[in-house]
Amino acid sequence: MNLQPSCHDVISGKWTPSAADVAGGRSAGFGVTTLIINGGVECGKGTTTPQEASRKGFFDRYCGLFGIEQGSNLDCANMSPF
């Protein structure tokens, strides 16, 4: 069984994807935090849902306001649940 990490561990870089995570399309980045928060509604659909696009839009905006890089793996469209 693959345990779901906390958003804090993902954001702070304390989470390292396991082989099962990689096989499920899960890698560190904003997309996996979306999977943790609301994965059943927004993730694993093969395309970006309107809900995920909205969440990512807020993330884009705040990264810009704070002048920080967004990093990679920003969506969860192809991530399977934990």
- Could you give the count of β-strands? 0
Main sheet, how many strands, which sense, barrel? Answer: none
**Overall number of structural domains:** 1
Q: Summarize the helix and strand pattern as letters.
A: HHHH
The chain-level mean pLDDT equals: 92
Strand content: under 5%
> Residue share in helices?
40-55%
Based on secondary structure, the structural category is mainly alpha
Low-pLDDT residue intervals, each spanning 5 or more residues: none
Question: Alpha-carbon distance between the termini?
Answer: 8 Å
What is the 3D shape? globular
DSSP summary: helix tally = 4
Gyration radius from CA atoms, angstroms:
12 Å
Keywords: Disulfide bond, Plant defense
Protein name: Glycoside hydrolase family 19 catalytic domain-containing protein
Domain Glycoside hydrolase family 19 catalytic: 4-76
GO molecular function: chitinase activity
What characteristics describe this protein?
4 helices; 82 residues; mainly alpha
Structure report:
It holds the Pfam family Glyco_hydro_19. This is Glycoside hydrolase family 19 catalytic domain-containing protein. One of its GO terms (molecular function) is chitinase activity. One of its GO terms (biological process) is cell wall macromolecule catabolic process. Residues 4-76 form the Glycoside hydrolase family 19 catalytic domain. The chain has helices at residues 7-11, 19-23, 30-42, 50-66. It has 82 residues and is mainly α. It has one domain (7-66). It is globular.
Provide a short characterization of the protein structure.
With 82 residues, the chain is mainly α.
